Amino acid sequence: MRAIRIGAGAGFSGDRIEPAVELAEKGSLDYLVFECLAERTIALAQLARRQDPSAGYDTLLEARMRAVLPACRDRGVRIVSNMGAANPRAAARRVAQIARELGQQGLKVAAVTGDDVLELALAENPPLLAGTGRLCDLGTDRILSANAYLGADGVVEALANGADVVIAGRVADPALFLGPLVHEFGWARDDWAMLAAGVLVGHLLECAGQLSGGYFADPGVKPVADLARLGFPFAQVSADGSAVVGKAAGSGGRIDLRTVKEQLLYELADPSSYLTPDVTADFSAVRMEQVGPDAVALSGARGRAAPDRLKVSVGYLDGFAGEGQIAYAGAQAVERGRLALEIVEQRLALTGVAVDELRRELIGVDAILVGAPGHALSTPGEVRARIAARCATLQAAQAIGAEVEALYTNGPAGGGGVTRSASPIVAIASALLPRARIRPQVELEVA
Amino acid sequence: MKMRLHEVAHARAGDKGDVSMISVIAYRAEDYGPLAVALTAEVVARVFEALGLQRVERFELPALGALNFVLYGALGGGVTRSLALDAHGKTLSSSLLAFEVDWPTAKTEGA
């Protein structure tokens, strides 16, 4: 049976580049997919694009492309990515330019757009998914971006047009992997079982190293061999949807039933109802079997019709966050840390700094579980006192860190190592829009 | 008897908006039964009470030896606006494994 091999080149925008190069060179790949868009990355990229119309795509696009294009061109590996962020056209032009500089004249680079639905979202004003209210209640002057999660259609069309590199904006993460499979195998867009099998592959690969031993190691209990040289995973997918996941020979990491189970359930709510723009996937009856060293076979994904509305991520400005931290060590470190937190809060009140929400905690004691009983495993010999607040103005947010810094000379004994920050909060809300109103567009750029 | 979850299971935490998802997976197939008895949604809700959760939902995956917990309202308003040090809640999985639960003996397990 015909099979296609797809590799994962990145699991987030700041991911390591070396494992992607290793996979392109040694993975016998047909496709290499880079998933680089977190929830709010597009909103931040939109801010960058407002400053500079030729910006707004992934800041590591250039470094990644220079690193992998030579190996991919030599071996005929096609690239798919959402590194276009808020500006896929500009990103595609940049990739074509880099290809020319590398002597790869004729390389075809596609831009997939259509995910930017800001105008439609403002006009439709749909209800927000969490909480109450409608989209425009966020404040139309504070809304930065609205991007729909596109399915695989745009990627499929780009590949059918002969693209060697496909650069999209917001596309559902698994759809970046499903696109090549639909293109290669000609799966019907209502063949729910096959689409679910492809989404399973995409879901497992989209976080790259998290399938192959990243986010897993627990010394002595869950060891991972040569974690420093963690290799990124690939999937060998057959036309019947069955797949075997693995990694490049000689790379570090680990792929077995334990790593695969953890990633299968990662970020899922109901495993029998995973909503994507292409299919509603059911992973509850997935079967897995270790078929070799660092090789696990998967089958049994089931699928139902895709939802008729698409999820839209709305980025909006939500005030400012201010933060300060200071360290205490030795005898009574916890007591001095708590005193520091108390007086900072008192001084903020005394000087009339208005905060909408405030958090104070001791890192090393209660920063993660905010004082839950049963979690104080032992008395720490050192702590960092941390205070963070949401404020309406940048000035107020800056005052948080300033008061923490002032603890050097005006606070408890032996406080050191202050860090402080203040920045606008770009928050994300979600809504649904009718699928029929959202269409991907594909443009081709030739190097 | 008391059992520290870390002895019998591994776990991974993920997030979507203000929701934390935590999988808890038995190392050995025979431990799934007792784990499913011991680690109910109510127990997990108590463990993470201080986070101010709205509710906890549990999904059972016996074929994988796994439980999947969905913690609504766990992330201080969501990754993008939370003031928390660990806004994603990535550390919650290991925090959960540090807990001791009432582990059913073989007798109560069969009962």
Structure description:
The complex is a heterodimer of chains A (447) and B (111). Chain A has helices at residues 18-26, 41-51, 61-75, 88-101, 118-124, 153-160, 173-185, 192-205, 257-264, 333-350, 394-405, 407-410; strands at 3-10, 31-34, 78-81, 108-113, 143-148, 165-168, 233-238, 243-247, 274-275, 280-282, 287-292, 295-299, 302-304, 309-329, 357-363, 382-391, 416-434, 441-446. With 447 residues, chain A is of the alpha+beta class. Chain A folds into two domains: 3-115 and 150-307, no CATH class; 314-430, Alpha-Beta Plaits (2-Layer Sandwich), CATH 3.30.70. A ten-stranded mixed β-sheet of chain A has the order 11-12-8-7-1-2-3-6-4-18, sandwiched between helices. In chain A, strands 5, 14, 15, 16 and 17 form a five-stranded antiparallel β-sheet that branches. In chain A, strand 7 (233-238) and strand 8 (243-247) form a beta hairpin. The radius of gyration of chain A is 24 Å and the shape is globular. Chain A starts with a strand and ends with a strand. Chain B contains five helices and six strands. Chain B is an alpha+beta fold and 111 residues long. Chain B has helices at residues 5-8, 32-38, 41-47, 92-97, 106-110; strands spanning 2-4, 9-16, 19-26, 55-61, 66-72, 100-102. The mean pLDDT of chain B is 92. Chain B has a four-stranded antiparallel β-sheet with strand order 2-3-5-4. Chain B has a single domain, classed as Alpha-Beta Plaits (2-Layer Sandwich). Chains A and B meet through helix 9, strand 14, strand 15, strand 16 and strand 17 of A and strand 2, strand 3, strand 4, strand 5 and helix 4 of B.
What are the SSEs and their pairings?
The complex is a heterodimer of chains A (about 450) and B (about 110).
Chain A: E1 3-10, H1 18-26, E2 31-34, H2 41-51, H3 61-75, E3 78-81, H4 88-101, E4 108-113, H5 118-124, E5 143-148, H6 153-160, E6 165-168, H7 173-185, H8 192-205, E7 233-238, E8 243-247, H9 257-264, E9 274-275, E10 280-282, E11 287-292, E12 295-299, E13 302-304, E14 309-329, H10 333-350, E15 357-363, E16 382-391, H11 394-405, H12 407-410, E17 416-434, E18 441-446
Parallel strand pairs in A: 1-2, 2-3, 3-6, 4-6
Antiparallel strand pairs in A: 1-7, 4-18, 5-14, 7-8, 8-12, 9-10, 10-13, 11-12, 14-16, 14-17, 15-16
Chain B: E1 2-4, H1 5-8, E2 9-16, E3 19-26, H2 32-38, H3 41-47, E4 55-61, E5 66-72, H4 92-97, E6 100-102, H5 106-110
Antiparallel strand pairs in B: 1-6, 2-3, 3-5, 4-5
